[in-house]
């Protein structure tokens, strides 16, 4: 009885979902019509409307006449189920192909090789789908369940990929599965307006489900045969995995994945093959000639200083401001007024310039990792989060160095969910003694849009500083990763000033973002205003973590259409972030035309006159030869732009030496040399 009731409820829910999706499409004609950009007029695309109606009618027939269709197909149910099962990997691939190709292209059109012209790659994708289906068949022994699992996992993944790419300009790769909790935490902050293809795919997937229900439940094998099938299937899957996942076979077939713009890989290689290739990129390759002897030879020339505590060291405040950047580096914004007037005006007692990030539109924790440790993520897989994947035990950092120098505070603040990007585990391993997040702020804390404001973070900094100085004159360290400017920028807020306009290049998203930056500028002015009145020497290192993801149409607009044709060096403009090292005492003015995140802690310690680790000294020397080093490439002292593995670069050997240190510090942790990454202590 209860099974019958559950089946009826299930039928009703499926019916409501199917009809609801159709109704949504009918109520939103822009989905199947072409919109004129100038007039806004809609022009019907008959094929899309016809496809929508046909799928709806097919689904309704299968729903309302299921009993009759089941009786009609009863004699052929098993062979028909097996036939559809054989075709299901092809059907799953078709779903992934159609949805993926509906994602707007975000790079040079010539880089999108047409997958339809490569039977070999299509075969590899279908084969991968078949292997997934085999796994489900081994587990369930049910043709219907297994086939539907494959179809729906493929659809859901590709629809998710559609939105992820819209939000951050980079599609899902294997390393992103380390960040699922963080992605879920901020998922509500974006706009999820669907496109026609995603809606159509879901409806077609439901029709597929309805059809299989008409065929009834079909077990693949009896118990004894199931064991034989499972054994043979496991061997087949193991052989496939060995060849396609854990070897360089795909690479030998000239199937590559551009980690600089992986969406091009999705379009040219297909969804399944792209995920396989991104799994292969999860491993950190050992640099050539890497050995303990090589590390010893490098490090012997850079002895660390002794950790001598002193009350004369300056207080250090490090602020990584979420998505803080100057979009003016990309093109001519022609804003109606300056969106960061205070920062643009800073001259005295200030070191400033542009630092280059390795990430764009997301991956905040990787910028944190580079700033705090001096380690570039260049060896790590694209979109892999170092905090989660490779920070498993204590690692020397700016924080642990300050702790050795007698600093108090050692506070990290992130005004959002504490667990994002594994910070609960990562921060203590870097030396932080206190970690504060959203619950540690007042319930009535000021918010801009939905996020705790930078001004409210300032209040936290000042309060913790004043509390610490009551009990001790030791220098104070405070670090914060803010949230105020976090994307997305589509929802119109009610609590954000609207003074910055772009009359020549109007964009609601860009204008909202720039108004957030204006708030950041004002908050930074307030904070420096407070510490300029403090007697204790204090420095504030202020920067952003990455640029925001902006719409391609806007980027083309401010670059007179040049953006889509930028080469890799020009694309580095999207990774440029202003940084400021401000002090309340006489700090010699210095400007860095270009540097990168991994050099900032060394620059900070050098200019504060603090004892330095051998690693920091090495980084300063390395920066003389390679002033900018990121996961996307580097600039040499000759002004040339190179990729990490470019053997023609005059800095190739120097870069490989740095990569050996990165491998040693991040991966080969058991062989870290003593007295190099950390200060010398008694």
Shape: globular
* Secondary structure tally, helices: 25
- What's the pLDDT, averaged over the residues? 91
Beta-strand content estimate: 5-15%
Helix fraction bin = 40-55%
Low-confidence stretches: none
Structure notes:
The protein is built from 25 helices and 15 strands. With 682 residues, the protein is of the alpha/beta class. The protein has an eight-stranded mixed sheet with strand order 6-5-9-3-10-11-4-12, sandwiched between helices. A three-stranded antiparallel sheet has the order 13-14-15, with no helix packed on it. A two-stranded antiparallel ribbon has the order 1-2. Helix 1 packs antiparallel against helix 8 and helix 5 packs across helix 6. The longest helix is centred in the N-terminal third of the chain and has 26 residues, at 2-27. The protein is globular, with a radius of gyration of 28 Å.
Q: What attributes characterize this protein structure?
A:
682 residues; alpha/beta; eight-stranded mixed sheet; three-stranded antiparallel sheet; 25 helices
